Sequence to fold (568 residues):
Amino acid sequence: MYWSRLFIPTLREDPAEAEVASHRLLLRAGYIRQLAAGIYDYLYLAQRSMLKITQIVREEMDAIGGQEMYLPALNPAEVWQESGRWDVMGDNMFRLKDRFGRALCLGMTHEEVMTSIARGELRSYKQLPQIWYQIQTKFRDEPRPKSGLLRVRQFIMKDSYTFDLTPAGLDAAYDKHHAAYCKIFDRCGLEYVVVEAHSGAMGGSQSHEFMVVSEAGEDFVVSGKNYAANLEKAVSVAQPPKVADPEGDLAPEEFHTPGQKTIADLCAFTKLPETSQMKSLVMMADGKPVLAVLRGDHSLSETKFSGALGATDVRPAHPEEIREWMGADAGSLGPVGVTKMRVLIDEALRGRRNLICGANKTDYHLRHVTPGEDFKGEFFDLRQAVEGDTSVVDGGPLKVQKTVEIGHIFKLGYKYSESMGLRVLNETGEEITPIMGSYGIGIERILAAAVELYHDKDGMVLPGSIAPFAVVVTPVNSADEGQRKAAQEIYDECKAAGIDALFDDRDERPGVKFKDADLIGIPYRITIGKKLPQGVVEVVERRGRVSTDVAVKDAAGFVRDRLASSAR
RNA sequence: CGGGCCGUGGCGCAGCCUGGCUAGCGCGCUUGCUUGGGGUGCAAGAGGUCGCGAGUUCAAAUCUCGCCGCCCCGACCA
Fold:
């Protein structure tokens, strides 16, 4: 392609509204433009990258026996009502009506539609297993779109769905996807971690997330040498208390704490660290109050909490509810004497003695409170892991990092096949319900995550497999006929060698061409300049800016070999 | 949905507080010359309903009210 004929609107300055690196660079390098909050135009360069990414995804999905389809983004309400998700999805679902007033929505994911196909067509065990996938646009009315392509309202997803006869079959399909995802992200040149995750509104049992560590991310991952998990789900060993508990069977004792509301206040007031305090949180679980008691320096994992209760809808109680149930305001709450609700105690408080907590009387607290003795409750692991905890696997240190989710795999179980009536006959002629899995990859998140991982002050440093072009051929002086001619020849040879090449034939100063090539992140640049009379050109690798002099006739071959060796 | 910032040629910004004359600056864009290894230099140009609507005033980019949009923090999040 000839750059002078292309639409690559690079900007000299950073766009004001872009904060995270990938957003700033994708705009500046002319990959994308914004149409509205969370809605982007993918211009030529972005589209080229996306096509390369989707091609990798397609190849690896096909390699595990996936069959590509293309389903409607416009869905009738009925299938979503059948699964129950018409209500569950709430405001996150874009909804509309057709001219006859029929309810429709824009698909957020396609379990329902895939299941409707399956139940209409699959009749026999002989037809299973199946792996069906598509690469298609999804719509989610995010409350707060942000960070460029990282959190948007319309995006492209590879979503696949598996139908199996048995749980063992699902395990195999799940493992195939796990392996395929690793290959996909490896080929895209990403560094990522795979973590245990919770399955949220998808339903189902087991789930893993594929995460790229980045400050621009919004999901937290806890990881150590032999362990990695989503923050909401991670289990860990808490740091020991900073101060040993007072010994003996001391009775709870009320003391006046005017204006001391937060744990930090109490630490200062009592001269005891956070680990000697207990915090009490009133939660509403499926409409009923439940008290959660945690160590002062820990916070509640709502995922673990709802899991412990088997509850589906969990939220913090409102101030009025707290007053109604506890007779005191948040800031003076405690578990002693609480009888009207279940009390859940975090495991980190097991065996502790004579701690401090609220007295359920505004401006009063209790000291010498022992869990299990001075108040009763059920012990569960309820807390979020924190930096400084140690691993339950090997005792090693754990860290908490921000990450971007690029893929997610779920064992769905029978949720959709059951609710939507998918059945096949088995070998003995009995009706059985197939078991399902679902698996997603965010296509533009791969691009955005790659930019987050690989950039420098001059622009993107994209992996060759997903860069919009593999090489740019740059004559330094466009007025120099010899340089131009040699550049054209090298460009032609690159094309003949099957390299995705770009010819910078613009009548620009060399600085402009170099800056633009750096900005848009093309992995290799062949510079034709002052060494041409000696029959030499330079091949500059964007990553690391390594420059190699090569003979004109060897330039295309050199780049081809470098690309081949860096693949995978 | 709560809190905060912002909205002025394509991009980045100044002007607004303290109302006043042809609304400025840098970059980009067009034309000509020039230059040619890291965003050349000179010259001449084009391009703006100052987000929208009401109000105050002799007079509004500037003051007041309402609305819209966007970004950031939080809530939320397959």
Summary: The first helix of chain A runs from residue 21 to 28. Chain A has a mean pLDDT of 92.
